[in-house]
Design a protein that fits this description.
By secondary structure, the chain is mostly helical. The protein has two domains: about 150 residues, Ribonuclease iii, N-terminal Endonuclease Domain, Chain A (Orthogonal Bundle); about 70 residues, Double Stranded RNA Binding Domain (2-Layer Sandwich), CATH 3.30.160.20. It is about 55% helix and about 10% strand. It contains ten helices and three strands; from the N terminus they run H-H-H-H-H-H-H-H-H-E-E-E-H. Strands 1-2-3 form a three-stranded antiparallel sheet, covered by helices on one side. The chain is globular. It catalyses: Endonucleolytic cleavage to 5'-phosphomonoester.
Length: about 240
Amino acid sequence: MANLRAEAVAALQTRIGHAFRDAALLERALTHASVGEGAPVGVHGPRDNERLEFLGDRVLGLLVAEKLSRDYPTANEGQLSSSLHALVDKTACARVGETLGVGAALRLSPGETKTGGRRKAGVIADAVEAILAAVYLDGGLEAARIFFDKAWAEEFSAPPSRTVTNPKSALQEWAQAKGRPLPTYRIADRTGSDHAPTFTVQVSVEGVEPLTAQGRSRQEAEKAAATALLKREGVI
């Protein structure tokens, strides 16, 4: 099993396209919090990827905003904001992670492994943000930009979407126009630590398949779910 993971980590590093000077950074980025539960904090802080995830989220936001501004000079602020939120959310990060093969390279506790941690979108998405932070810390912003441009290329295949400043209101209006009851939202899952939780919310509208999305708060997850449903149904 250890050899299989080592091979997966080596393959992942090749896909990342960055030769780490500090290999420990990549290992930390791939280490889920479940591994260190109950263990003492190391000399340099927690040994899992939560702090790297925090940094990576900010680096990702900067790089997405930079690329959107450069690639779509005629898009307005609303269009850019809508696209930014779609490109940095957990769903997008999970897709990137699946393409990179992050799941097989993760370091998980036996319990998390048994519950399918390598396939959990939230776990993969968090690791992707942590990897971006690791590249940034190891090689600087330019190295992070090179990795980002390659890893998020498919996510940028569609231009900025039509602006929806309040997706929950837009979904409500769409449902009412169809003569259906108001959309309902429920928390399907909550993972992560208290200071960095991930909420999975399911949105339901009568007559269409329910849809789930993730966010760092319940409100963010509800907005992401509403936006995703509107896109799926061709409203935006």
